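quick one before i forget lol
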Amino acid sequence: MARLSKPASNVPVLWQAKEMWGSSLAAANKAPKTIRTYLDSVGKLEAHVTSVRDIDRISRTDHEAMIAGLYDAGWKASSVSTVYRSLRSFWKFVVEYDDLPVTKDPMNGMAAPMIPETTVVFATDDELRRIIATTKSRSRHNYLGHRDEAIIRLFASTGARLSEVATLTLTDVDLATAYPSVRVMGKGRRERDLPLDEPTLLALRAYLTRERPRHPAASVTDKVWLARAGEMTPNGIAQMIAERAQMAGIARRVHPHELRHRFIAKALGAGLSEGDVMALSGHRSRSMLDRYGRYTRAQRAQDAFRKASASGALPRL
């Protein structure tokens, strides 16, 4: 796409700095999704100040007006925060890059968007059992049922992200050792091994040994999850879970991330340390775990209240 001409100035304009940052991110081997998120955020600034604005003429006021515009357009606080954090990274690059004549971050002093605390929503034990029940069939071969049960159990028992489950290959799955596991590629291209519980192991084994080999695409791709037309996409997996939940009589749309929420909250509630949960879930910051910690503490407090009330330990008027 042709770029607008650069004004008569020796100072680079925004689109040039953006392209330089994109090249730097690619050279650092950042994940393609991360690069897109970063550059899309700079694109929001471009839309506000134009792509041919000299980078030394972009101010804090410009950023605050742009952020306010996102809220006015109905953006969620979490999405606005992503743009804010991406732009902070962009200006850090600009200030530190020797070939760019900017020495002051125009976002200095700017407050980060406040994200309201929200209730963590995830499938209950009963809802999960009902969802899994929709995969059962009396048929000898139940390709979709075995595949979907394995996917659902994998999310619920490991806390893996949608992208991590969707990109699994056959070499990532180890079912033959004493400690079965799957290896996933997480954010920042960081690998981690996720242990499998017995029900998930059995579901994966049934799909991989009895069902997947019969698929026409089984011999031409090493991707684990196969749809009718070939490799299963992340959107296809999300749609499958939503449809299974609907079949189970659950009114809201259930997303794979609910099952990740469920795993983290259950693991913390079972007494696993925050460090262990972070290692399993792939979180690099404790800030997200704080939300789950608050939830589990609230649940324990409610359970303790109910027991005390039922036993008569609490004073009554």
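fyi Residues 1-8 have pLDDT under 50 and may be disordered.
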